[in-house]
Amino acid sequence: MRLSRLARIAAEAEGVRLRGMATRTTKRVVFALTALFFIAGVLVFAHLAVWYELRTALDQTYLISIAILGGADLLLAMILLFLAARSSPSRVETEALEVRRKAIEGIGSALNVASMLLPLLSFATSFRNRRRK
Q1: How confident is the model at residue 118 (pLDDT cuts 50, 70, 90)?
Q2: Which residue did the predictor score with more confidence, 67 or 114?
Q3: What domain range includes position 20?
Q4: Out of 41, 56, 96, 110, which could bridge 17 as a Cys pair, Cβ 3.0 to 4.6 Å?
Q5: 61 vs 8, 12, 73, 75, 78, CA distance in Å?
Q6: What is the value of pTM for the model shown?
Q7: Is residue 67 within 8 Å of 51, Cβ to Cβ?
Q8: pLDDT digits (tens, 9 = 90+) for 11-52
Q9: Could you tell me which of 72, 95, 89, 73 has the C-alpha nearest to residue 28?
Q10: What residues have CB less than 8 Å from 68, skipping those under 6 apart?
């Protein structure tokens, strides 16, 4: 393969990999923002109602009702943050990375062949110049 073609393949593979990473990062951000939205929503809009219901219906003390409510909030937040943190490279990203590696290896071997041919080329040109004289 020609050097320019290998470089183009490596660049295209890197582009595919970066697009996959951007998609994955976007999903992680969406999950994290959703987690924050739910945490804020639960804290602002539902806490007073739930706390009041715990206090009156179950006839609990302030501390017990606050502990129950805080435990439920913590559980929901941990589930959502786990979903945001759970992310691994997709199959497309992994394959694109492998294609890029192979193309870069091909560039290296093409450069090695070219570097071996340069002394031969200089020897041939100097030999030709000597024969002309």
Answers
A1: low
A2: 67
A3: 3-132
A4: 96
A5: 69, 63, 19, 22, 26
A6: 0.40
A7: no
A8: 888 899 899 999 999 999 999 999 999 888 877 787 788 888
A9: 89
A10: 54, 60
